[in-house]
Amino acid sequence: MTTLLLFASTFGLVFALGLQSQFVNNGHYGAAFANSLMISVAQLGALQIVHATTPIHYVAYVIGGPLGIVSSMVLYRRRWKKG
């Protein structure tokens, strides 16, 4: 369970940060405001969960970030980017 939580915490945080970058760069003020709440929740979750003790915990935490950023880029382009 800890492995999944570590993965989810870093995935969620980096996903939200990636979306925030897209929203800010493209002038989506409302989305950037709302997404800031998601960032805060994800960051609090990550801080509460991070207590990796085995190699698989570290791998789960590290892999969540790259998958989170790429997922946020894909979602943004499919949902908000026109043209």
From TrEMBL:
Record's keyword terms, sorted: Membrane, Transmembrane, Transmembrane helix
Spans traversing the lipid bilayer: 58-76
Keyword Transmembrane helix: yes
Protein's name according to its UniProt entry: Uncharacterized protein
Organism: Paucimonas lemoignei (Pseudomonas lemoignei)
Taxon lineage: Bacteria, Pseudomonadati, Pseudomonadota, Betaproteobacteria, Burkholderiales
